[in-house]
């Protein structure tokens, strides 16, 4: 039984953390891409929570962020994810959800907004 419990903890710690971050990351990027897709429909402006006014620059900022985050996560995935700490499965799930789930939502919002602002300040227009 100890071997099975240990295997579950390793799987949740290493695979679960990156999977949780990846899913949350993808969800947050939809808040950039969907408003840009429906830019012509002002009734859907409420989903543009970042206030990005140029749809092509917004999508480009999301693509740049996605490229950077994938490259940044490759070493973490190859190394085996996050460090293993023995704990209950409920505690591991709660920690992964809080750290990687919330971090996976907030990080893209902040980073995409910064990239967008830098692009607009740099004079990028389409």
Output the structural class.
mainly alpha
Number of strands: 0
Beta content: under 5%
Helix-strand string: HHH
Largest sheet: none
Task: List the main descriptive attributes of the protein structure presented here.
126 residues; mainly alpha; 3 helices
Describe this structure in a few short sentences.
The chain is mainly α and 126 residues long. It contains three helices and no strands.
General description of the model:
The protein is mostly helical and 126 residues long. The chain has one domain (2-121). It is built from three helices and no strands. It has helices spanning 2-37, 55-79, 89-121. Helix 1 (2-37) runs antiparallel to helix 2 (55-79). The longest helix is centred in the N-terminal third of the chain and has 36 residues, at 2-37. It is elongated, with a radius of gyration of 18 Å. The chain starts with a helix and ends in a 5-residue tail after the last helix. The model has no long low-confidence stretch (mean pLDDT 76).
Topology:
Layout lengths: L1 H36 L17 H25 L9 H33 L5
Helix pairs in contact: 1-2, 1-3, 2-3
């Amino acid at each position: 039984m100890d071997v099975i419990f240990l295997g579950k903890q390793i799987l949740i710690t290493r695979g679960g953390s990156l999977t949780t971050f990846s899913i949350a990351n993808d969800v947050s990027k939809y808040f950039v891409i969907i408003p840009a897709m429906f830019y012509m429909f002002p009734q859907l402006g409420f989903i543009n929570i970042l206030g990005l006014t140029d749809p092509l620059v917004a999508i480009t900022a999301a693509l740049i962020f996605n490229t950077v985050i994938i490259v940044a996560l490759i070493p973490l995935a190859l190394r085996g994810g996050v460090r293993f700490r023995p704990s209950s499965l409920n505690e591991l799930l709660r920690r992964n959800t809080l750290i990687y789930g919330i971090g996976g939502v907030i990080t893209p919002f902040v980073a995409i907004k910064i990239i967008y602002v830098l692009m607009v300040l740099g004079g990028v227009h389409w």
